[in-house]
């Protein structure tokens, strides 16, 4: 079963206990604005953290805190072992055979910047083309603009249909002999559209073009495996996968990473330093300069453990039920317009309400304790394609429930009466 099917299949509630999962997230017991119980519908921006991740961070700082790699004392050895074990764990989670290809970065954004830097320095030449899509997050646009400026390459853009799907006919036309890289999001953070990653990667590879997959929105919602998709590069952020902020993962095939120069320099990424010159470690050390976010990596390991012990198929089906329940309610609400109606979707729904500004929608709902996102979602080109400057966005995760959806819909009805 492919990823899109996993995200949209009929539910199997017996294999997933949403009540037990919700109880794992202590923040959901909080009251927020005006003493209202929290309804958290902003997981596409950052996911909440389960108790096991919070506890693992506390345990590290209370019992294991030390710098890694360079110490011979007990705590340093313990911290190094904990840190490096997450590299192997992450490789298994991503379906990657060689754990040395896993690079810890501060987020998906830094991972993309690292690859863009490597391409600008080592691969791209004047006249080359970088192929992106119209639905990319700014983090998968701006680094490539800078890489193009430095190298003399240019950017081509795959357009989006009125439904919020990629125009695959245009993709076929744009993928050409000058294309040096295809970089695209697996799931749109603004629309929830699931892109046909395997078909696009296979087509690019047939043309001899490497691929970067932005998995920031897909890894939290579905099983995503290198064994199936065979990307050349993939990134995701820990904080969207129930882990700490400030940590992320870049996977890159060894043959590419070894061609890239260091992205940053300093301690721990070197073999030997002399004033006459320096030699560098091989991967992954070459790309992890200085003291890393040790606690973040260890917390990410706890988050991966938490996710992998769930029935991910059933979790995806449960999330999809909530998303479709919300979409159905919004579609039936006068004056509400959903932006995007992709054939395969997960995670989020964007909408507008008449002439009401998205920020007013977000502020009004916040007074009821309902947390949504309002703005351009770091996808200004995508919203401009739909003639918009901003939308309201509700995004869902495994800890949401039907009551969250009903409170959102009721809040929107009160908002319409108010305005």
Oligomer state of the chains in this structure: single chain
What is the CATH level 1 assignment of the largest domain?
Answer: Alpha Beta
What is the total tally of β strands? 15
Question: What's the mean pLDDT score?
Answer: 95
CATH topology of the largest domain: Aspartate Aminotransferase, domain 2
Listing every helix as H and every strand as E from the N terminus to the C terminus, the arrangement reads HHEHHEHEHEHEHEHEEHEEHHEEHEEHEH
How much helicity do the residues have?
25-40%
Measured between the Cα atoms of the first and last residue, the distance is 45 Å
Task: Sum this structure up briefly.
With 419 residues, the protein is an alpha/beta fold.
Task: Give a description of the structure.
The protein is of the alpha/beta class. It has two domains: 3-48 and 311-418, Aspartate Aminotransferase, domain 1 (Alpha-Beta Complex), CATH 3.90.1150; 54-308, Aspartate Aminotransferase, domain 2 (3-Layer(aba) Sandwich). The protein has 15 helices and 15 strands. The chain has helices at residues 3-8, 18-23, 51-64, 74-94, 108-122, 142-151, 168-174, 197-206, 226-229, 254-257, 294-308, 312-331, 358-366, 380-385, 402-418; strands at residues 39-40, 102-105, 129-133, 154-158, 179-185, 211-214, 233-237, 248-252, 270-274, 277-280, 336-339, 348-353, 370-371, 373-375, 391-395. Strands 2-8-7-6-5-3-4 form a seven-stranded mixed beta sheet, with helices on both faces. A four-stranded antiparallel beta sheet has the order 11-12-15-14, with helices on one face. The protein starts with a helix and ends with a helix. Mean pLDDT is 95; it is low at 1-14.
């Amino acid at each position: 079963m492919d990823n899109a099917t996993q995200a949209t299949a009929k539910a199997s509630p017996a294999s997933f206990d949403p009540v037990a999962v919700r109880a794992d997230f202590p923040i959901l017991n909080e009251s927020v604005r005006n003493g209202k119980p929290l309804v958290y519908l902003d997981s596409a921006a950052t996911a909440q953290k389960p108790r096991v991740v919070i506890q693992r961070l506390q345990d590290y700082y209370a019992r294991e805190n030390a710098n890694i790699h360079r110490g011979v004392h007990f705590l340093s050895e313990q911290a190094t072992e904990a840190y490096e074990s997450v590299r192997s764990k992450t490789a298994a989670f991503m379906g990657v055979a060689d754990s040395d290809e896993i690079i810890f970065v501060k987020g998906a954004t830094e991972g993309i910047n690292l690859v863009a830097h490597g391409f600008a320095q080592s691969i791209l030449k004047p006249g080359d083309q970088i192929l992106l899509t119209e639905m990319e997050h700014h983090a998968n646009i701006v680094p490539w603009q800078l890489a193009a400026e430095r190298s003399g390459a240019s950017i081509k853009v795959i357009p989006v249909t009125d439904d919020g799907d990629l125009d695959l006919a245009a993709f076929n036309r744009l993928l050409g002999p000058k294309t040096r890289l295809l970089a695209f999001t697996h799931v749109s953070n603004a629309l929830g559209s699931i892109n046909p990653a395997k078909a696009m990667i296979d087509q690019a590879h047939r043309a001899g073009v490497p691929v970067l997959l932005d998995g920031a929105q897909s890894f939290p919602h579905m099983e995503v495996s290198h064994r199936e998709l065979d990307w050349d590069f993939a990134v995701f952020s820990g904080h969207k996968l129930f882990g700490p902020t400030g940590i992320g993962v870049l996977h890159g095939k060894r043959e590419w990473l070894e061609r890239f120069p260091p992205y940053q320099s300093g301690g721990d990424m070197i073999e030997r330093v002399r004033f006459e010159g320096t030699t560098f470690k091989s991967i992954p050390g070459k790309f992890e300069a200085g003291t890393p976010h040790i606690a973040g990596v260890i917390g990410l390991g706890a988050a991966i453990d938490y996710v992998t012990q769930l029935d991910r198929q059933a979790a995806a089906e449960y999330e999809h039920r909530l998303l479709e329940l919300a979409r159905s309610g919004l579609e039936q609400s006068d004056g509400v317009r959903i932006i995007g109606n992709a054939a395969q979707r997960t995670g989020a729904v964007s909408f507008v309400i008449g002439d009401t500004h998205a920020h007013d929608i977000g502020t009004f709902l916040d007074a009821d304790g309902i947390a949504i996102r309002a703005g351009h979602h770091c996808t200004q080109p995508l919203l401009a394609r739909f003639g918009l400057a901003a939308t309201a966005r509700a995004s869902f995760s495994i800890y949401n429930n039907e009551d969250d959806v009903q409170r959102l819909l009721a809040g929107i009805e009160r908002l319409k009466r108010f305005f």
